[in-house]
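Weekly puzzle thread! Below is a chain. First person to post its structure in token form gets bragging rights.
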Amino acid sequence: MTKRGRPRREPEIVDNLYCTIDGWQRTFRFGVNRFPRFEGIFEKDGGIDEWDHLEVFGTVRYHYTTRKTRKRTGQKVVLWVFPGRFSRDDYKHDPQSVGGVWTEEGKLLGMLNIPSDAFYSLFPCLTAGTFKELEIKARNMRYRRGDLNGIEFAPKETPLEDLEG
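Winning reply:
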């Protein structure tokens, strides 16, 4: 608290990480009758188990932040993207972070859920090699954890001169 008794507001920490995309991998799993029968939850014996996710691998090229800290240039990045069962309009009414980021064993790891229509439209572009750069916007990165505010796939890499100017 300050001298006048008002709480001091901490400045928001923003990290923009510009990464090259080194590769990606999709994992899909589907099964039936994988769960035991539970009264009131499953009407029949078993159930359906579906799991689909995308892993994007990259390397940090540029790191811009609003605080003085060690730059993450050259650090490996693994981003897990999952399809969400919601529409894009849900974000308009209650904007929050879309996922989380953390560091582990020298890597920056991130996880987020995106609307399923956007999720499934990523694969043709990744297969064709359209995306060259991934921008990760993280907020309040403290003690190896933070909120993932957004990602952006770009068809070309951002030159350093454009970021400095």
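Puzzle host: Confirmed. Bonus trivia for everyone else. The chain has a mean pLDDT of 82.
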